[in-house]
Every structure is written in C-alpha cells, then in structure tokens.
C-alpha cells in the first residue's frame, strides 16, 4: 500500500490487470467511455448528415418537378389565350362577312324590286300596245 502511494505520488498507477499505467484507472475508464461516446456521436452526426443530404436531394427533386409543372401550366394557359384570340378574330371575320352579305342581300332586294317594277311597266306597255291594235 505504501509502495502504491509512492507510485501514485510519482503519477504511476496499477490497473485491474495489475499493469503499470500513467493515468489513474478511474480517469482511464472515463477517457475510454468518452472516446466511445465521441465515436457514437460522430457516427450519429454522419448518419444525420446522410439523412439531411437525402432530404435536400428530395426537396431539389420536388422543386424541379414543381418548376416543370409550373412551366406546363404557363404553356397551357398561353395556348388557351392564343386559342381565345384566334376564336375572337374568327368571330370578327364572320361578323364582317355577315354584315357584307346583309348589304349584298339589301342591294339584290332593291334590284329585284326595281326589276319587278320595270317588268310591270313593260307588261302594262305590252297590254296597252295589244289593246290598241
């Protein structure tokens, strides 16, 4: 015990296997435990980084998919707008054509009435000419 105290004063200690050590057995045990905890912490940190990495990858994929869908939606909206404009232009052309045909119909109606009047006048003239004979 006295020898152990003298060695302890010199900073030397015996472990549980009676090997001579520089560290106190308790300090050595705490150091080993700390080393294990650190190793576990490093492992957990690496696992966490891996999870975070895959999460970031997933979020990037979702962002790309969302961007792609947004572009598709914008394209579809633009196509619909252009179709609507085409329809509007077609409708205006048809309205103009209808107006033109109505005017043409009115001209023909007036022309027909005029011809009917001329025919009536000519028939009347023919009738008078026949009765004069």
UniProtKB/TrEMBL annotation:
It is found in: Cell projection, Cilium. Residues 80-111 form a coiled coil. Pfam families: IFT20 (PF14931). It comes from the Eukaryota. Its main location: other. GO terms for biological process: cilium assembly; protein localization to cilium. Keywords: Cell projection, Coiled coil. InterPro entries: FT20 (IPR028172). One of its GO terms (cellular component) is centrosome. This is IFT20 protein. The lineage of its organism: Eukaryota, Metazoa, Chordata, Craniata, Vertebrata.
